[in-house]
Amino acid sequence: MSRYSDAEIAALYRVIRERRDMRHFLPTPIDPEMLNRLLHAAHCAPSVGLMQPWRFVRVTDRALRQQIHQLVEDERIQTAAALNERSDAFMKLKVEGILECGELIVAALMEQREQHIFGRRTLPEMDLASVAGAIQNLWLAARAEGIGMGWVSLFDPVALATLLNMPTGSKPVAILCIGHVKQFYSAPMLELEGWAKGRPLEELLFHNSWGNTMTESST
Amino acid sequence: MSRYSDAEIAALYRVIRERRDMRHFLPTPIDPEMLNRLLHAAHCAPSVGLMQPWRFVRVTDRALRQQIHQLVEDERIQTAAALNERSDAFMKLKVEGILECGELIVAALMEQREQHIFGRRTLPEMDLASVAGAIQNLWLAARAEGIGMGWVSLFDPVALATLLNMPTGSKPVAILCIGHVKQFYSAPMLELEGWAKGRPLEELLFHNSWGNTMTESST
Fold first, then answer.
1. How close, in Å, is residue A205 to chain B by CA atoms?
2. What is the side-by-side order of every strand in the sheet holding A171-179?
3. Any CB–CB contact under 8 A between B218 and chain A?
4. In this complex, is the C-beta atom of B75 within 8 Å of any C-beta atom belonging to chain A?
5. How far apart (Å, rounded) are the C-alpha atoms in residues A158 and B5?
6. Less CB within 10 Å around the terminal CB: N or C of chain A?
């Protein structure tokens, strides 16, 4: 069957709605078989020219996890400084759960990507788009399994690459905190905290020309 | 409930496995309500600092669709030339279904992104990651609804931005072909066509240090 059942379709839309970028975790370990399922879901992602540019580093070494946490803490302070008048509000936000989460995975772009031209001659950044699709797969699968995930991008990529012995040309793009949670946020945490407010889709959808939010039937 | 039912979880993993990057479409129109659901699924995506950097341009003008097709055709020839010895094989591949698909949507990065520092001070490209997550949501929702989607990145972004009257600082990143299909590919089309072969996850998953594919239990 090409179309899924109504119940299956409803489940998919529900998980898309209920997925959250989590920062609060319980320390309960993640079942290794579940982690395997989540990573395989990521690996099912589309990739430009089938290059599969994603690489994952599973961090089980406790000292390494502490070092990664310190990198993020350093960048958190740098980001706060760059935010000027919003600096204090930013410093009050919880932006990561690196030390608490059950599993820590660094997602990265592979090295030697310049060899892949298909779909990337004018848009070389499509490799990152592929990695992001893989991470979104993992995120949705985790949510359905009742597991939280947070994507942390507050770090110096060169420093993190050094910590993980990454080769020239590769680049870390996400520190993924994966873990059990007490509860999922009812809305994006940055909305609940009053940091930002999402805009309705209708303002971001144009018709034939940028900025044209009016459909023909609504004119 | 935090964890979804077994049947719901199974449906999600199935749609993640069965999603395909489609290039073959039937001209049957897409129900506008379904298109609305798909775009709302995209809009549920996570975004760095809740910046929601995605913009969508729905192309209903037939002449505009033809112009976009020509842009892709131009880039297809440029890409073939850049592929040297694989040029002939590349030219035989069907790389887009722009003229056949029921709906054509251009996904783009918004303008004035430099104002958003949260999570982007060291990794400004996180805006693209957010857009890619939105597109992956749309892709999965379409597959569950029995609708195919293809992400075309063979175009000159400046030329496409000009066609769509996009402001300075914005950037198109995807031409999304959305439509009914006769059938979904049983595997990625580039594998079926012998262009490339996917690698197993195990080769791309490292432990604590890049290149370390051995787990402790397997040593």
1. 5
2. A148-152, A171-179, A103-109, A54-59, B205-207
3. no
4. yes
5. 42
6. N
Segment 1-20 of chain A within 8 Å of chain B by CB = 1-5, 7-9, 11-17, 19
Q: Is A127 on the interface with B (CB under 8 A)?
A: no
Q: Residues for chain A: how many in total? A: 219
Please report which helix (H) or strand (E) contains residue B41, including its range: helix B32-43
In tens, the pLDDT along B48-95 reads 999 999 999 999 999 999 999 999 999 999 999 999 999 999 999 999
Question: Which residues of A are less than 8 Å from B149 in CB distance?
Answer: none
With cut-offs at 50, 70 and 90, classify the pLDDT of residue B218.
very low
- pLDDT grade for A219, boundaries at 50, 70 and 90: very low
> What is the model's pTM?
0.97
CB-based contact B196 A83, cutoff 8 Å: no
C-beta separation of B112 from B169 below 8 A: yes
The DSSP string of B92-147 is HS----TTTSSEEEEEEEPS-GGG--TTTSS-TTHHHHHHHHHHHHHHHHHHHTT-
Q: What mean pLDDT comes out for the span B147-176?
A: 98
Mean pLDDT value of segment A76-104: 95
Which amino acid does the sequence have at A200? P
List pLDDT tens digits, range B122-141.
999 999 999 999 999 999 99
Residues B128 and A129: beta-carbon distance below 8 Å: yes
Q: What is the pLDDT of residue A214?
A: 78
For residues B194 and B191, give the distance between their C-alpha atoms in angstroms, rounded to a whole number.
5
Looking at the complex, does the CB of residue A136 fall below 8 Å from at least one CB of chain B? Answer: yes
- Measure the N-to-C terminal CA separation of chain A; round to a whole number of Å: 39
Q: Is B104 on the interface with A (CB under 8 A)?
A: no
